[in-house]
Amino acid sequence: MRKFVLSLLGLIVWSATYSQSILGEWKDYLSYSNAVKVDASGNKVYCATEGGLYYFDTEDNSLNKVNNLSDFGIQTIAYSSENNLLVVAYSNSNIDILKDGNVINLSDIKRKSITGDKTINNITFRGSNAYLASGFGIVVVNLDKSEIKDTYFIGADGGQLAVNDVAFFQGMIYAATEKGVLKAPESGANLLDYTSWMEEDLVPHAGERFIQLEVHSERLIATYSPSNGGDESFGFDGSSWSSYYSGMNEVLEMRSTGNYLSITGKYEVVLLDAGNVMVGKINSYQLGEQVVNPIYPKSTFIAADGMIWIADRGNALVGYDGNQFESMVPNGPVDNHTFSLTAAGSDLWVTAGGRTNVWNNSWMAPGFRRLRGGEWTNFSKKEIPELDNFWDVVCVAVDPNDPDHIFVGSWGGGLLEFRNDEFVVRYTNKNSPLQSALPQQPDEPFTRIGGLDFDSEGNLWINTWAVSGNNLHKLSPAGEWESFSMTEVLGKATGQLLVNSDDDKWILVPRNNNAYVVDKTGTNKKRLAVTSYFSNGQDEIRTEMSDLYSIAEDKEGAIWVGTSVGVAVYNNPSRIWNTNPFYASRPGLDLKDGIYHPLLSTETVTAIAVDGANRKWLGTKNSGVYLVSESGEEEILHFTAENSPLLSNSITALAINDKSGEVFIGTDKGLISYQSDANEGNNTYSNVYVYPNPVRETYDGPVTITGLIADTDIKITDISGNLVYKTTSLGGQASWDGRNLNGNRVKTGVYLVLCNDKQGNETHITKLLFIH
Fold first, then answer.
1. What is the distance between the alpha carbons of residues 83 and 563, in angstroms, rounded to a whole number?
2. Start and end of every PorZ N-terminal beta-propeller domain (predicted)?
């Protein structure tokens, strides 16, 4: 029976009541735990971390992320109280100036073609100028005009010279460089002329590497840093140099604030008064009941009220009021290690382990985490003592009947079970049929889990590295074990395991060892030599594709395998049991030149994910992420670190939130996501909505219609029924650019969104207010 549903949304303002990502939006999920720099302005204490920038507001005790930055990977920051602004320098030499809630980007150094190091090491303010100590010289930024004013090349013959810091003292500008301390008159000289710069030859170790300069208590302090360690600081009173402080092996920062000089070292912070007397030392933190020792401070700031703020690697922003320490860090992943991603409903699970190219341990501390409702929950030995004495968590499987019941596989620590975020049991060769990868050491619980997946009956399948006996196991919902031997691959590492819609187990055997397939019962088994077959009517081409890295099943049941020479596809995987040899096909990109171009044939495909429109997202080892059509014959998108906010071109994992269409991309530098235009289709039109609604006159992005049945035919008309736009949804989602069939932005008015499923059995109408 034909069903008709009319949704009278009227003028409901969805944008005020429902938060949705904009199509094409990027979002980073980086850790804020590893801080690199701290600075402060009034009531705001800024902390720059590997994951981004945030500040602690001392008035309301709130943590606030700064989300409108232009780039990722902060190298350093500095706040100018005189100019009331914050300068942010990135590792790629990009620069942001934050002032009055606005972000001004200066990309000149980033874009400039300079051979050599462009790293911005330190930032020094002088009046309305910022002096950037860089790997090639000194860059002067006019803060009033937000533009590059000058560049000083002060090396021999006007060449490049790495400058580590800049300071002003008694009418001179000083530069700490890799070849000593250089100086020039602050005024009356042409600083663009390298001959204006002279070597400070009175300082001890003149001509050698100096890394820090600071003015404190009417002295210029310079830190000498030999390559073998043993840093020394010397003070200059205007006439002579003398030893200032040499009690720290590695100085990371010196900073004068008020009457105190803080010296931040690799494992401690030392505080000196105006008379060069040590008045304090911090080499551990008491954070609640935990004593942190050693500590890894990177930067220190002493506030006017005496509060000490430390940017720490591992504990983010640490505050100390003289009595107690407190770590202040926004919610997020504890680190940026992303080895595998598992999407389950709206949850995302991330593992932080790893394996080397020869499938040995990477020796990453055991840990994994969950993103749920925008909040991260971290699981590590800090929170769970049972996560100790082993390494490298590599995979997570979520019980399809209970999202809070999970199993975690590690490369040497066995299988761990958790329920409701609580540890249940750890399975190894000591208490289960799982076998050790070290049979010569029977007392060592060294069980290596390659992959995990559930079948349609709720059984968990586990493959392991075992040298004899059984290397495939089944754990039933009732807790009963059953084991199987994949004889041909005993003694070999086994990797990712996929249980497909037929309940067959497809298992990758790395390092040119192809795949292994086991049927639903575990009785039928087959070593599968992954080989593609292609015929153009004249020639038959067979290509061995034995070096496997990733696997996924698409919406039609086809198995897609990522290899070191592109992608292999088994369109009818059930034929494996009665076809020999069983060949794969190799999708070919249509480049309209009449020549067959196998998909990504020169790339190693490390990750595969299938979106709601059955399109394939393909992650590569060195070339970023590709989105290809359902058949793989059309390239839709290609993201790299060079043309997008992608953190790195080395992709470790992919996963998709089917409900929202958010594509999570794991890289060797951390996790980021892209808001795709496709999500999983619904069974009915019971939850259709349009956003933003209303469309304001200031908005020029896409209008999204979501909550649809897959492949819905969409027609948008004005209130009189005149057709404005038509399309077909990608899975359960469609988008409109706000323009009519002639390409013009539509007029102000109410528009109808008419939805029909492809069989014509279900229809739906919703309304949209558009303001021109």
1. 55
2. 45-197
Report the relative pairing of strands 472-475 and 460-464 from DSSP bridges: antiparallel
Statement: residue 742 has pLDDT above 90: yes
Write the single-letter amino acid at 247: G
3-state secondary structure of 217: coil
State residue 18's pLDDT score: 37
Residue 701 has pLDDT above 60, yes or no: yes
CA 745 to CA 662: how far, in whole Å? Answer: 27
β-pairing, 74-80 vs 85-90, is: antiparallel
Which CATH number do you get for residue 244? 2.120.10.60
Is there a domain that residue 571 lies in? Answer: no
Q: Chain-centre distance of CA 678, in angstroms?
A: 22
DSSP letter at 111 equals H
Nearest residue to 79 via CA among 40, 111, 44: 40
Number of domains into which the chain is organized: 2
Structural domain containing residue 172: 30-118+168-180+201-328
Q: For the segment 429-468, what is each residue's pLDDT rounded down to a tens digit?
A: 999 999 999 888 877 889 999 999 999 999 999 999 988 8
Q: Which pLDDT value is given to residue 388? A: 87
- Tell me the β-bridge partners of 550: 562
The predicted model gives 119-138 an average pLDDT of: 98
55-64, 461-470, 529-538: least confident range:
529-538
pLDDT for position 20: 66
Q: Is residue 578 part of a domain?
A: no
Q: Is the pLDDT of residue 350 over 60?
A: yes
* Residue 320 to residue 625: CA distance in whole angstroms: 44
For tokens 């930032």, what's the residue?
Answer: 123
Checking 43-47 for CB contacts under 8 A at 24+ apart, the result is 45/301, 45/303, 45/309, 45/317, 45/319, 46/77, 46/79, 46/86, 47/309, 47/311, 47/316, 47/317, 47/328
Average pLDDT, whole number, for the chain?
Answer: 93
Q: Residue 188 region, left (φ>0) first, then alpha (ψ -120 to 50), else beta?
A: left
442 located within any domain: no
Residue 722 belongs to domain with CATH number: 2.60.40.3110
- Which residues neighbour 578 within 8 Å (Cβ) at sequence distance 6 or greater? none
Query: For residue 246, which amino acid is it?
Result: S
Q: Where among 294, 328, 362 does a domain terminate?
A: 328
Contact 751, 759 (CB under 8 A): no
403: in domain:
no
Last residue of a domain, one of 328, 354, 377: 328
Q: Are 386 and 347 within 8 A, CB to CB?
A: no
Q: 281-309, pLDDT tens digit by residue?
A: 999 999 988 899 999 999 999 999 999 99
Report d(CA 333, CA 620) in Å as an integer. Answer: 24
* Cβ atoms 559, 568 nearer than 8 A: no
| Predicted local distance difference test score (pLDDT) of residue 541 | 86
Q: Burial letters for 95-107: b for 16+ Cβ neighbours within 10 Å, e otherwise?
A: bbbbeeeeeeebe
